[in-house]
Predict the structure.
Amino acid sequence: MRLADRVAVDTGWAGPELTASVGRALPAGRWGRPDDVANLVRWLVSDDAAWITGQVIDSEGGFRCWIM
């Protein structure tokens, strides 16, 4: 069982079927994975992000758009 499913079931929020359905409904089409956040961090510490300062960067696959 994936972590998202386990948390949802353990907290009583939802079962695996609902978490899978929500994942498919997100703009990204799936729940996030640890490597999604790791890729953002890797970019932020690279020279390519040298001009990025004082920003809040959401790494949430469109979840906020989906729930609003």
